[in-house]
Design goal:
The chain has about 170 residues and is mainly β. The chain has one helix spanning about 1-15, and strands at about 25, 30-35, 40-50, 55-60, 70-75, 80, 85, 95-100, 110-120, 125-135, 150-155, 170-174. The strands form three sheets. Strands 1-3-8-5-6 form a five-stranded antiparallel sheet, with no helix packed on it. The protein has a five-stranded mixed sheet with strand order 2-10-9-4-7, with no helix packed on it.
Length: about 170
């Protein structure tokens, strides 16, 4: 019983002092991006866990649903994911992808997505706000016709034996 008491006190001390506390870093290097109409947003999102036991982290996205926002694996084969299993003590973050494609009729402007990673019990939760600026192509301005020389020929191609002379007529219009 004395050993159990000693272990329990050590565990309580570790948790109270922050040693062994569960930490989750959830981030992207590019929280604001610009995308052209018809192009898909594809951002690396990283998760780094410094807890003391393995944990499952659920992923969710709040934002324009018609953009089909989702999380996918960052390597081959690419699959859609909803939960990531994280191990303690990893030195490198786990990298996943956030993807979204604007609908064809979406007007240009800023769109916000809130990416959330949380444990099923809600004890750990982190969110990232990603702003996507959608650029629509401007209507091309009608160009003024430039005055130019026009060249015209009666026969666009001629054949003749090697070494023979060619007579070729070109009409120039101004």
């Amino acid at each position: 019983a004395a050993r159990w008491w000693l272990v329990s006190l050590a565990t309580i001390f570790m948790l109270a002092s922050g040693v062994g506390a569960q930490e989750l870093s959830f981030f992207t290097d590019y929280p604001a991006v610009v995308v052209s109409q018809g192009r898909e947003v594809s951002l690396e999102v990283k998760l780094l866990y410094t807890g003391y036991s393995p944990v499952d982290v659920e992923l969710s996205v709040a934002g324009p649903e018609d953009w089909n926002p989702r999380f996918e694996t960052s390597g081959y084969p690419v699959i859609r994911i909803q939960t990531v299993h994280l191990l303690p003590g990893e030195e490198e973050p786990k990298v996943i992808r956030f993807k979204a494609r604007p609908p064809d009729e979406a007007p240009g402007g800023d769109y916000q997505f809130t990416l959330t990673a949380s444990t099923p019990d809600g004890a750990i939760q982190q969110s990232i706000t990603v702003t996507v600026t959608l650029e629509t192509e401007a209507e091309p301005e009608e160009e003024e016709p430039e005055e130019a020389l026009q060249l015209a020929v009666d026969y666009p191609s001629l054949e003749n034996a090697a070494g023979e002379e060619f007579v070729y007529t070109i009409q120039v219009r101004n």
